[in-house]
Amino acid sequence: MLTIEHENSHIAPWLQSLWNSLDFENLPNAILLHGQSGIGKFPFAVELAKALLCESSQGTQKPCNQCEACHWFNTGNHPDFISLVPETHRKLLPHAEYEGDDAPKKGRAARDEGDGEASEKKEKKNISIEETRGAIECLSIGSHRGGNRIILIYPLEMLRSDSANTLLKSLEEPPPNTIFLLLADRVDRVLPTIRSRCRLLTAPRPDRQLGLDWLRDKVQGISGLKMADADIETIYDEQGGAPFSVLESLVARHNKDEKDELTISIQASRYLLQSMSQGARINWLDAAEKIHKARYSFLLATMQRWVSDLQSVAQGGDPRYYPKHIPTLQNLSKTANLPKLLAFWKSLTQARRHENHPLANRIQLEALLSQYQQLFGG
After folding, report:
1. I want to staple 73 with a disulfide (CB 3.0 to 4.6 A). Which of 3, 78, 170, 365 is the partner?
2. pLDDT tens-digit profile of 81-116?
3. Model confidence pLDDT, tens digit, residues 274-292
4. In Å, what is the CA distance from 331 to each residue of 50, 175, 277, 309, 334?
């Protein structure tokens, strides 16, 4: 059994044991890695793809970062690596930092970054059926370098039904020497027929101290980014203990890019929390107007975390996500109608099932915030 048990700096420390548990000589043709968003699944999968394509013969030290295959992979040009991700996630893939005469030719990574007017277009969040078919068609061609061929798909739950069915056909009759690395933030949204054809790997969330230590180390390594430990801890808790998500939000805040989607969503989330803290006095029409341009899934997650804490405090527990808001949560819990609170939680859960569909966000938010107002005082 070949396991690659060296410490890998590209793997988050809380995922290192998962990495070391993999038998690289006997991997199945399809792996479904799932877990909370923002805990490092994508860097893990990219490093795994690189290790599976590495051509080094030096025992367990893979990826070696020295062989030609690793060089091609690092520049985003390995011909046997196929990535199927929406435009919003392509910045997370390895890509060329140079285009000299000795640079390898463009490979199969589905990146197609445009320039000029194309770069100004809003990035797509879904994976189209055309992209899926194009990637699957590439599998009919033999491996370019005679070894493994890797197709990475993230996030799997973002596939449309027609794209998912196309993928399913390939999983049912997998091409030789092809390994599917599938990633999902919400495995419950993945088709059962796809799940049943994969080996499921659960990516654990770090314990709080380990996650915070990692995050502080990363923050210290970013020039000009200074933040008090207490503020880091607050944001860490607010974002559900997902270190990569927190780091991304801190960098976005540091860069002060007012047009960045994450920056917009963070600012909207803050306004949403201020509004929800008003309880029965919430101006839900104003709140929906101010926040509806933000990422809908981000806002729903904020609402769920707030309501989760409110439920916990109402039942004598402690808040998990917003411990600094205990006085506000305690006051709200005194007038909250528990049955209505549970019904509202179900409404949020239902909304999250359809958060990626092209809905009228403002209307949806108005309906949810109006329902939230009715939780109090009766």
Report:
1. 78
2. 988 887 777 777 886 543 333 333 334 444 443 333
3. 999 999 999 999 999 999 9
4. 52, 60, 10, 13, 5
Supply 73's token pair: 């992979």
Tell me how far apart the alpha carbons of residues 205 and 259 are, in angstroms, rounded to a whole number: 30
**What is the 8-class DSSP label of residue 143?**
P
What 3-state class would DSSP assign to 38?
coil
Q: Across 121-246, where does the E strand assignment appear?
A: 149-153, 178-184, 199-202
From residue 314, alpha-carbon distances to 92, 309, 369 in Å are 41, 8, 19
Q: Give the separation between CA 201 and CA 218, rounded to whole angstroms.
A: 26
How many residues would you count in the chain?
378
Angle, in degrees to the nearest 10, between helices 261-276 and 296-314: 30
- C-alpha span between 135 and 86 (Å, rounded): 13
Whole-prediction pTM value? 0.80
User: Residue 110 corresponds to which tokens in the numbers above?
Assistant: 């589905």
